[in-house]
């Protein structure tokens, strides 16, 4: 028995020893880790790290509403309106919609009970209070089949749910529709009672860090079986597409589906609009912002979209690449141009069948009513052209119509010789009517600036030119109608409307007007190093001069042994200005940041203010700017709080316990073609900025939909740069009117998620400027943006934040940008290629970094060059802060300071606890391990040692 008890005690001793060892190891890891990322921890648990006190508490920016409840009510109403005007009616055979009010319906599909409200990652939103579809339908007066609802929520169907990868790309996309075998006779029998219509819901979401697999944008076999079952059991079948990327619709041609309604992702309140549209309270007026191709692989960009490797590169985060071989032919710019060339039998267009290639063109959208257009007129103005058209509601329901204006530039011999490409049509403006009652008319005007006609001549003049020739301007309901209108005006045998087209002739080529930016800077080529032809002289971009002969293939088959020039260019460079002098720091003075509210960026007092800062504060302000910045006590600059995401200020990704409105993603907002809604959203997100204390908004997102399966297309507006720029500029201006600071992102060429970390994106400068940079330019020039977020990717071989041609010469020189540029996430060693010294020299200003050991340079590394660049960066950031709502509560008598958050005081308690735990734990382990016999032997050995010691002492005497 004694032996057994001894064994038990020793087993317990071993277990306790393991527990204490694990707890100790965890503490040894957690304590320094949490200390290093203390800013992120503080943000996640909503504990402030800065404070301000004293002064008269001035409020430079205030709410337009009397209460938080009033803001919430206005936000909820707007969220519903965005969905009402953003949903797109794609099919309505036999006027299947709207349904009768009070109809009894059956909701079918896993997604009926698992709606897509937004995307994952930075664009994620909290939709815990959002209505489900049954609630939304019942609110609209419908009776919903309870048996099927229970099947999807609590029954056998509840085990089938969509899967979406994590923010880091772990996991998979999967639709996981319930198979027909999961249904019982009870579910089938219930359908007869709720048979006014079957409403089949198909859902797809997107995510940061990973692109959508091609098969995810097709209907699964289980979904096709579900639709087949619905068509067999119901006389009327309505398909709701709760998807944010175009999905392959050709597979549905075999099924008798009466109506198709694209609803995108719904945000917090948008689900209510579905019921309102289905019962006719709302007439859908949205139009597509993407081309819905029969096969996404038919787009030329699809050939270069994926994971491609530079096999001989050992550069850190520098062995992945993409070549934008399609040039300017993205989305409708490809399909419409090749269609025109096929009709006119030119450009080696081949056997191109538009109707087989495109299911729904860009700009497409139906209504419950009909409209006629008349009296189209183009008038030259001082700056360009005014297009007028009268729209009349000729149907039986009230509704809104969208008028789109498209331009065709002449495609000349000079273009062919100098590798300039000209799409058949390009969107240059749009307008949405008011709600028109049956029989009511409205004349809308679209103003087109003459600059819309310029092109960037990268290989010839090296600047913007306006070529001589015939320019066509047409008003149309979608891009394909526009192309046919222009073809009809040229005399081609197509069903276009030549009366909706006007001709302008440019007598002479103008190489000067647009070669000088409004800032006075000369617009010159800055991106030769991003053009693949710089490294491969034999490469040819897709050209309408020879469609078949220049059709893209995957560059180097996705496995590129790059030339030495590429390998060298991939390396980090850290320019040194030998003439740089160390700036003055710690200069005595009483100037405060609030003294410079409203001051010009070039005001001489900025230099005085910046000289009062310490060298340490200057550098730490710009290197440690992840989700917020510190207070600078010497100049009275308050700390700031930054948050994602593009659908509204969100705490779902990085914590913070915020309760702001979760709007529909940008793709739905842009589908409204209603810029007023974008302005209202920007202003209401600004209201959330005021109430939540979040000054810097990591949004709007300005990349375009280069391909149908980009993982973050949901948070980008459109495939078209003008549409993206108009909405981005509107949201930007409105948000900043409430004192918030945008960071339009991801500047630039972050158009796929695969290998966005360090991936080298090669693109020619015409495409770069006219497509990918254009939305950013509009948000800066027209929207007044004072914050930009640079991408994780490279442009050419250089990390985008380290590319001086773009970050300084184009952004600041040509566009006149006065604000700051912050990186995307750079808190971990995996982002070491986003070098702070290279970036500062090029024009990147802040690092979105929450780790104290990242980008920490020693004093010898903080050279005169680095500190001059750091001071410039601090100037740009503080200029934005001075004119923001971060200054609310700050005047010359206000004290600002950095504080230790409460949770960090727990370190002391934790250290004491661990010490006490180890001390008494060690005692407990020893006591349990020991036995009487062991202790007796131990005492005997101790006595022998003592006797031996005494004997030696006696002998020594």
Short recap of the structure:
This protein is α/β, with parallel strands linked by helices and 957 residues long.
Key structural traits:
globular; alpha/beta; four-stranded mixed sheet; 957 residues
What does this molecule look like?
By secondary structure, the protein is α/β, with parallel strands linked by helices. The chain is built from 25 helices and 33 strands. A six-stranded mixed beta sheet has the order 2-7-6-5-3-4, with helices on both faces. It has a four-stranded mixed beta sheet with strand order 10-27-29-30, with no helix packed on it.
SSE arrangement:
Layout: H1 2-36, H2 38-44, E1 50-53, H3 68-86, E2 88-92, E3 104-108, H4 133-139, E4 143-144, H5 146-153, H6 185-190, E5 197-203, H7 221-233, E6 237-242, E7 259-262, H8 271-278, E8 292-293, E9 309-310, E10 321-323, H9 332-343, H10 354-357, E11 358-360, E12 371-380, E13 384-393, E14 402-408, H11 413-417, E15 426-432, E16 441-449, E17 455-457, E18 463-465, E19 469-476, H12 479-489, E20 501-506, E21 559-560, H13 564-569, H14 605-611, H15 615-623, E22 628-629, E23 640-643, H16 666-671, H17 675-692, E24 696-697, H18 721-737, E25 741-742, E26 744-747, E27 760-762, H19 765-772, H20 774-781, E28 787-790, E29 794-795, E30 798-799, H21 804-814, E31 820-825, H22 836-842, E32 846-848, H23 864-882, E33 895-898, H24 902-929, H25 932-956
Parallel strand pairs: 3-4, 3-5, 5-6, 6-7, 9-21, 10-27, 23-24, 24-25, 26-28, 27-29, 28-31, 31-32
Antiparallel strand pairs: 1-33, 2-7, 8-11, 12-13, 13-16, 14-15, 14-19, 17-18, 19-20, 22-23, 29-30
């Amino acid at each position: 028995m004694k032996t057994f008890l001894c064994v038990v005690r020793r087993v317990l001793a071993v277990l306790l020893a393991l527990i204490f060892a694990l707890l100790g190891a965890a503490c040894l890891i957690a304590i320094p880790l949490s200390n290093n990322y203390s800013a992120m921890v503080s943000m996640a648990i909503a504990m402030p790290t800065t404070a301000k006190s004293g002064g008269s508490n001035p409020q430079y920016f205030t709410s337009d509403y009397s209460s938080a409840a009033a803001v919430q009510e206005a936000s909820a109403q707007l969220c519903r309106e965005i969905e009402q005007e953003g949903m797109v009616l794609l099919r309505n055979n036999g006027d299947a919609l709207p349904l009768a009010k009070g109809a009894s319906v059956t909701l079918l599909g896993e997604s009926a009970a698992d709606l897509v409200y937004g995307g994952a990652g930075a664009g994620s939103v909290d939709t815990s209070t959002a209505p489900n579809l049954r609630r939304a339908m019942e609110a609209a007066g419908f009776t919903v089949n309870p048996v099927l609802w229970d099947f999807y929520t609590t029954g056998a169907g509840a085990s089938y749910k969509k899967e979406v990868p994590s923010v880091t790309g772990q996991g998979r996309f999967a639709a996981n529709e319930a198979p027909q075998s999961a249904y019982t006779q009870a579910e089938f029998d219930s359908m007869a009672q709720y048979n006014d219509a079957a409403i089949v819901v198909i859902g797809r979401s997107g995510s940061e860090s990973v692109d959508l697999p091609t098969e995810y944008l097709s209907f699964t076999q289980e979904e096709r079986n579900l639709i087949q079952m619905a068509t067999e059991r119901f006389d009327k079948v309505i398909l709701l597409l709760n998807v944010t990327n175009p999905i392959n619709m050709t597979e549905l041609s075999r099924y008798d589906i009466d109506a198709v309604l694209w609803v995108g992702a719904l945000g917090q309140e948008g689900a209510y609009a579905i019921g309102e549209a289905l019962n006719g309270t709302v007439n859908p007026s949205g139009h597509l912002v993407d081309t819905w191709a029969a096969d996404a692989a038919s787009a030329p960009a699809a050939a270069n979209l994926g994971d491609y490797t530079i096999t001989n590169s050992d550069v850190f985060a520098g062995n992945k690449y993409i070549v934008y071989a399609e040039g300017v032919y993205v989305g409708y710019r490809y399909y419409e141009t090749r269609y025109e060339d096929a009709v006119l039998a030119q450009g080696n267009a081949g056997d191109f069948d538009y109707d087989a290639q495109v299911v729904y063109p860009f700009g497409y959208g139906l209504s419950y009513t009909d409209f006629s257009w008349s009296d189209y007129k183009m008038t030259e103005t001082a700056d360009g052209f005014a297009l007028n058209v009268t729209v009349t509601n000729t149907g039986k329901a009230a509704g809104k119509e969208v008028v789109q204006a498209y331009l065709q530039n002449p495609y000349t011999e000079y273009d062919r010789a100098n590798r300039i490409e000209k799409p058949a049509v390009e969107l240059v403006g749009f307008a949405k009517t008011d709600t028109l009652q049956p029989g009511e008319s409205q004349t809308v005007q679209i103003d087109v600036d003459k600059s819309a006609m310029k092109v960037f001549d990268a290989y010839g003049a090296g600047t913007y030119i306006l070529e001589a020739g015939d320019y066509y301007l047409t008003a149309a309901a979608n891009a394909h109608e526009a192309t046919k209108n222009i073809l009809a005006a040229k005399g081609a045998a197509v069903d276009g409307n030549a009366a909706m087209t006007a001709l302008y002739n440019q007598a002479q080529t103008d190489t000067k007007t647009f070669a000088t930016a409004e800032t006075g800077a000369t617009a010159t080529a800055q991106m030769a190093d991003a053009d693949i032809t710089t490294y491969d002289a034999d490469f040819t971009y897709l050209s309408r001069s020879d469609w078949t002969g220049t059709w893209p293939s995957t560059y180097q088959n996705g496995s590129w042994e790059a030339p030495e020039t590429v390998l060298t260019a991939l390396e980090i460079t850290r320019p040194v200005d030998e003439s740089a002098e160390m700036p003055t720091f710690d200069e005595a003075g009483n100037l405060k940041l609030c003294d410079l509210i409203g001051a010009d960026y070039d005001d001489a007092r900025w230099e005085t203010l910046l000289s009062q800062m310490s060298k340490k504060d200057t550098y730490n302000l710009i290197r440690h700017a992840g989700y917020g910045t510190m207070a600078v006590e010497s100049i009275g600059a308050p700390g700031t709080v930054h948050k994602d995401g593009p659908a509204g200020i969100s705490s779902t990704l990085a914590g913070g316990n915020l309760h702001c409105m979760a709007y529909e993603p940008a793709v739905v907002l842009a589908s409204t073609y209603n810029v007023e809604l974008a302005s209202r959203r920007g202003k209401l997100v600004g209201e959330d900025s005021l109430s939540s204390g979040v000054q810097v908004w990591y949004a709007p997102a300005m990349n375009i939909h280069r391909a149908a399966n980009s993982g973050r297309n949901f948070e980008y507006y459109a495939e078209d740069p003008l549409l993206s720029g108009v909405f981005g500029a509107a949201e930007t201006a409105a948000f900043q009117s409430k004192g918030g600071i945008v960071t339009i992102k991801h500047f630039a060429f972050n158009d796929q998620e695969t290998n966005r970390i360090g991936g080298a994106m090669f693109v020619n400068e015409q495409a770069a400027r006219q497509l990918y940079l254009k939305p950013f330019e509009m948000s800066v020039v027209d929207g007044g943006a004072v914050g930009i977020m640079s991408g994780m990717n490279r442009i050419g071989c250089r990390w985008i934040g380290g590319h001086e041609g773009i970050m300084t010469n184009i952004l600041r020189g040509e566009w006149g940008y006065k604000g700051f540029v912050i990186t995307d996430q750079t808190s971990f060693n995996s982002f070491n290629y986003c070098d702070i010294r290279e970036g500062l020299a090029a024009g990147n200003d802040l690092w979105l970094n929450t780790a104290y050991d990242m980008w920490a340079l020693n004093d010898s590394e903080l050279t005169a060059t680095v500190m001059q660049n750091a001071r410039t960066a601090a100037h740009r950031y503080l200029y934005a802060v001075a004119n923001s709502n971060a200054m609310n509560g700050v005047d010359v008598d206000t004290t600002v300071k950095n504080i230790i958050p409460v949770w960090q005081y727990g370190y002391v308690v934790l250290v004491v606890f661990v010490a006490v735990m180890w001390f008494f734990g060690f005692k407990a382990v020893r006591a349990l391990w020991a036995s009487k016999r062991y202790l007796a032997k131990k005492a005997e050995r101790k006595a022998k040692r003592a006797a031996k010691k005494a004997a030696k002492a006696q002998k020594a005497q």
